[in-house]
Amino acid sequence: MPKIWDDTIETHRGAVLEAIFAATGSIVGEEGLTALSMSRVAADAGIGRATLYKYFNDIDAVLVAWHRHAIEHHMSMLRHISEQHGDALEALKAVLFAFADIRSSHGAHDAARLLHVLPHVGDAEGRLRSFLGDLIAAARKNGSFRKDIAPDDLAAFAISSLSAPHTKAFTPKLVDLVLTAMRRP
What we know:
Low-confidence stretches: none
Number of helices: 9
Number of domains: 2
Strand content: under 5%
Distance between the termini: 62 Å
Order of helices and strands: HHHHHHHHH
Radius of gyration: 19 Å
Mean pLDDT: 88
Oligomer: single chain
CATH architecture of the largest domain: Orthogonal Bundle
Structural class: mainly alpha
């Protein structure tokens, strides 16, 4: 069994966690939640079961930690996308497209339906709503978005709309529909 080791304990710990999260994501994505077990995650991560148990007490803890990690990765990615655009409206469009794309790929999995009711998801959705609300407020300055609805409410509308089940092929049309609904009447 391969061993993961780095120069410091901190980097070693980070590498082990990344291996655990990558293995968990791969298993869930390819085979679903029923394929998850501590033995399977450890084997796929290239670590021993004892090592996995040093990090997590049970498979539920692994699953929740993996999901938190995935959410943070997605939030970081959305922030990075917004920073790539100087124009607020273009940043908003790019972020909405990326979010809709994420939701189209993950929304249909059993794991998504089960995990998205956990408390950590509510916190993440609040941060996402605030982030999108700030982008909407910035894009609103040019006068194209409606002012009769608060930016946070428009953000909640966008999140809800883009979270609906849809195919990747429909993502551009869905983003256009959301942007059209947020425009000034």
